[in-house]
Amino acid sequence: MPLDEDGPSWKKRAEDIRDIYEFREVLGTGAFSEVVLAEMKKTQKLVAIKCIPKKALEGKETSIENEIAVLRKIKHTNIVSLEDIYESRSHLYLIMQLVSGGELFDRIVEKGFYTEKDASQLIKQILDAVKYLHDMGIVHRDLKPENLLYYSMDEDSKIMISDFGLSKIEGSGSVMSTACGTPGYVAPEVLAQKPYSKAVDCWSIGVIAYILLCGYPPFYDENDAKLFEQILKAEYEFDSPYWDDISDSAKDFIQHLMEKDPNKRNTCDQALQHPWIAGDTALDKNIHESVSEQIRKNFAKSRWKQAFNATAVIRHMRKLQLGTSQEGPGQTTPTSPCHGNLLMPGDNHGSHSESCQDCCAPKSSENNSLAYSTHCAQSNRV
Question: Where on this chain does ATP bind (predicted)?
Fold first, then answer.
């Protein structure tokens, strides 16, 4: 679908986007787009704007239209939203919800008290959101902790799923069989290059739940071939002493999601009915010391890689003395760089075509795409 003046009706015309939004800070620059922190002049609402030159879209119209088609369908309390779309003579502008509560791992490390029940409540929110996506016929295909952000700095802030760069709408013309995702979180059937379904997301949620309860990934090897072999065989363990104080119910929950056979794997519906989520089997025992220590060891690199963008945003917010954030009065803005990470869906962190500096999201040591993901249908996305 060409992105011109006769394009889709959901695009609003804007001769100069700066008449509507005041640009504050560049959050990230990629090969095909730039993401900026901006303030809507009428409401003082902060947003993130993805600015895409039309020249960069020549020959890639289908890719960006697919991404927008996914984003426009999504309205869920735990999913970062696309709020508006503007088009000028030279650019396309995606107006994204701003999320400023920081990364999942950072929040856990900073807590003094953390339990299975906390992990269970986090996973429930993720399951609710992914169930919503699946009911809409959307498969995320790149669920991982780096794509899970807190909405605000509030202690009881909700968790948000972001980054829909690898998402796919089922039944949109092709069977999903391309190897997309991030090593360590990707399902066996994807690595086997077999046709796959929404069950790949359920596997990834199982991996995330595993990490939330011990602080380290179930699959790891410096050698990609050996890592893939572990995943293909679904070889993982509940190692002592890290799992000694974790309930059998939690382990059972994970085993039902990290099931090698996608046909036997729990769906989001089934996972939401598991006693560890729906019942009272998640323990209240404090596991913070062990989990946070392992997170620091295994995911330490994510912090310094996000530091530049976070610091830039916080500096600007302080300079502007912005006492209110994206939802209006009474909500605090971030107060430290480690809390200031901002992430929008549509900024793909699993694509070979982008480097660490290409967008405003953090990139961990595990955040590398599969060796053959350049063949993914989304690999040329903006």
Answer: 55
